[in-house]
Write a structure and sequence with these properties.
Number of strands: 2
Mean pLDDT: 91
Distance between the termini: 63 Å
Strand content: under 5%
Helix content: 25-40%
Radius of gyration: 23 Å
Structural class: mainly alpha
Number of helices: 7
Order of helices and strands: HHHHHEEHH
Bound molecules: protoporphyrin IX containing FE
Low-confidence stretches: none
């Protein structure tokens, strides 16, 4: 069918007690730095948060070194640079945010994992989201692993790259049947496949197959978009516990109050 398929990855941060996996976030940061940051920015994410315990947990001296090595290019380069209020270029420090990057007309990734949904329906009831979550990270991982050779119905010179998960791109009229249905899932995206698998060597020796790389960078982007997820889940759990205890006490109180009249 022409339904695009978002894979339901098992992320460590799912469920009421889920937490980010520090090693995974560190691998995702490495992928973002070595591959994605060439085109995408993370302009709302402060670099210092890389040392958060509930995040990547990178030691502060390493975060300082990381900020410092971020490429700061000269004015002849048409890539948009981090410009301090003074208008001068200088090396980044942890209190800076990650640089914006508008060089390739690629969207900023700071909030992407919350801006996209992997699961919808059925019929607008949101049942899938209730069961599986919103699926922003699943969407990103599936998108990165969702490139395929363009289908035969498409003209050879159709602009963009065929992706089975991306829904918002161009779509050739020759791939739409008489009833107006798309004959193939997804659409044509402006981003060339950024990951092929084996793009990156991880210090922890973790697998760098395409699926794993996609999963790792998606987890990192989930953390970037929702760095306080663990604190939110904890507060929610305490709230539910509190209400459960309150409900039990109110039940017993109610019984006692009405006991003389029964
Ligand atoms: C779009 C992720 C690398 C250029 C996107 C989107 C995501 C994404 C999530 C948004 C898709 C949507 O709108 O639903 C990533 C990740 C990368 C990466 C995780 C690294 C692994 C790159 C690189 C380039 C690039 C290296 C440039 C060579 C673009 C462009 C778009 C885009 C131009 C807009 C595409 C369109 O709307 O048709 N990317 N990207 N990306 N990316 Fe990347």
């Amino acid at each position: 069918g022409a339904e695009s398929h978002v894979e339901d990855y098992d992320f460590s941060f799912e469920g009421p007690f889920g937490a980010y996996d520090q090693n995974q976030l560190q691998r995702g940061l490495q992928i973002y730095t070595e591959v994605c940051s060439a085109c995408h920015g993370l302009r709302y994410v402060p670099i210092r948060t890389l040392s958060d315990e509930s995040g990547p947990g990178i030691p502060e001296d390493q975060v300082r070194a990381y900020a410092n090595q971020f490429p700061v290019l000269d004015e002849d380069n048409n890539r948009q640079l981090y410009v301090q209020e003074t208008g001068e270029f200088r090396a980044l420090v942890p209190s800076d945010n990650f640089p914006a990057n508008t060089s390739a007309a690629a969207p900023d990734l700071s909030l992407m994992a919350k801006a996209r949904a992997g699961f919808h329906g059925p019929y607008g009831l949101g049942i899938n989201q209730f069961v599986k979550g919103i699926g922003g990270a699943e969407y990103i991982a599936s998108l990165l692993a969702g490139y395929e050779e363009a289908p035969e119905c498409a003209p050879e010179d159709f602009p963009g790259h065929y992706n089975t998960v991306f829904a918002a791109g161009g779509f050739p009229a020759s791939c739409i049947d008489e009833e107006g249905h798309h004959m193939v899932p997804g659409s044509w995206i402006g981003m060339a496949p950024p990951l092929q698998g084996e793009d990156i060597e991880f210090a922890d020796g973790h697998s760098n197959e395409l699926h794993h790389e996609a999963e790792d960078v998606a987890a990192f982007l989930m953390w970037a978009a929702e760095p306080q997820m663990m604190a939110r889940k904890q507060a929610g759990f305490v709230g539910v516990l509190f209400l459960a205890v309150l409900a039990a006490l109110l039940y017993l109180t109610n019984k006692r109050i009405w006991a003389p009249h029964k």
